[in-house]
Amino acid sequence: MQKANRFLLLIPAALGIIVFALFPLIQIAIPTVTSGANPIALYTQFLQSNYDLQVIFRTLTIATVTTVITVLLGLPTALWISRQSVSWRQFLSVIILFPILTNAVVRNFAWIIILGKNGVLNNMLQALHLISAPLTLLYTNTAIVIGSVYLFLPIMITTLVDSANGLNPEIEEAAAVLGARPFTILREIILPQMAPAILTGAILVFSGAMTAYTTPQLLGGNRHLVMSTLIYQQAMTLGNWTNASVVAMVLIVLSLIVLGLLRWYTGRLDRRVDHA
Amino acid sequence: MLDRHNHVLQLIGVIVLALLILPLGIVVVTSFGTEPTISFPIKGFTLAWYANIWTQPAFVDGFQSSLTIALLASLLALLIGVPAVYALTRFDIPQKAWFQTLFLSPTLIPEIVIGFALYQTLVIAWRLPLWPSLLIGHLLLCLPYVIRLVTSSMLHLDPHIEEAAWTLGTSRPRAFFTIVLPNIRTSIVAAFMLCFINSFNNIPISLFLNGPSQNMLPTAILNYLQNNYDPTVSALSVVLMLFTAVLMLLMEKLLGVGALTTTETN
Known about the structure:
heterodimer, A: 276 residues, B: mainly alpha, MetI-like fold, MetI-like_sf (chain B), cell membrane (chain B)
C-alpha cells in the first residue's frame, strides 16, 4: 500500500484528538498566562490563597485516604475471591462488576439515603440508643471518602483478583510447612508478588478519586469543594472562566505528577521482579 | 494458611461484598415506599414512583439523548479507531509511539477538564450547538477504549493469514473485511460495549455541554436531586440497574462468560 494511504487511515483519529482535545486544552490554557500581570501571576495568586490551597489539600487527602482504604479492603477480598472454586469465583466477579457498570449517580444516591440526617444509619443508631440526636454524616469530607471508596473499591478488587489468580499456592504451602504464620506468608510471599497489581490499582483509584465530580458534588455539598467541583463552580456558577482554567491546569499538572511518580515506582518494582 | 477456609479472609470478603450490594438493595427497597420523601424501612407499597418517571420530561428526553449519543459515539469511535489501529499494527510507521501516545492522551486529561475545554472552545468560541459538542466529547471518551482493546487483539492476530489471502489474489480491503475483521470481532464488540456503557453513564463531560434544550440522563438526575428527595430517583435507579443487568447479560451472550470477568473496565 502506498505510503500516503497508510497515513490516511490514521488521519481521522489523529485529527479528531488534535482538534477536539489538544486544541481546546491549549485554548483554555492561554488566558491563564496572558491575562495576569505576568505569565504566572494567576497561578501564584491561586497557590497563595488559603481557600484554594485548602481545596487542593482536601482533594489530595480524599484521593490518598480512598486509595489506602481500597487497598486495605480490596487485598483480602481479592485473595478470598481468588481462592474459591471456579464457578463461585465467576459469580463473585459478576457481583463486583455490577456496581462498576452502574451509573455513579445511582451509587452515590444510595449513600445519600444511608448517611442523611434522617437516613438509614442515623435511624439505626438512634433505634439502638447509641446516639440521642442524629449525627451530621452527609456533606462532610468523610462522606466523600465513603462514596469514593464505594465507587472505586470494585475496580481495585478486579485489578487485584487478576493478580491473585496467578499466585502459586504451593509456595505458600511450603512456607506454612516450614512454620511460617499467615501474616508472615502475606508479608513475605503474597505482597511482593502482588505489588505491581496493587500499584496499578492505586493508580486507577487515585487518579479516579482525584478527578471525580459526582461524588464530591452529591456527598460533599457546597462547603466541601474539591478541585473538580471548584472548576465547575468557578466556570458555571461564578462565570469566572479564567479562574476555572487555572484550577483545571493545576489539576492536570497534579494528576500527571502523581501518575508519573506511581508509574516510575512501578517501573522500579518491575525491574526488581525481573532481577529476582 | 490463607486459603478459602481462613476465617479472617472470609470475614472481610463477606463484609466487603455485603457493603457493595446492600446500598443498592436499600435503593431498590425505597423505590416502593408510599411516603413523599425517601424513608427506610418503607411504609406501604406502591409502584407510583415508577409511573412518575415518565411524567418528568427531563428523564424521558435525557434517556433518549443519552442512548443516541452513546450509540453514535461508540460507532464513530470504532469507525475512526479501527482503521487507525490497523495502520499502526500492520504498517511500518516510524512515528508509531507518537501516534499511540496521541490516541491515548484523552485518558490523561481529567474528564471534567475535557468538558470545560470543549464548552469554552466548541460552544462559546465556535458557537457549535450542544448536540454535536456532546457527541464530540463522548467520542473523545470512547476512542481510547477502542484503541487499547483492538490493538491488543490485532497484535495477537497472525499477519501471515492476511498475507496468504493477498498472495491468493484477494484485494487489501476485501482481505480486511473477510479475514481481519471476523478475527478481531470479539475485541470490537467488547470495545463497543465499554464505550457505550461509559458514555451512557458519563457525567463530567455532559455536565458542561447540556442545557435546558439538551438533557442527558445522568445530569438530569443530578439536577433533579438538587431540589427533590422523593422516591422517583430510587425508581429510576432501579430501572438503570435493570438496564445494567441487561447489558451484562448481553455481554455474556456476545462475548462468553470469561469476557465479563476479564474485560478491563477502566
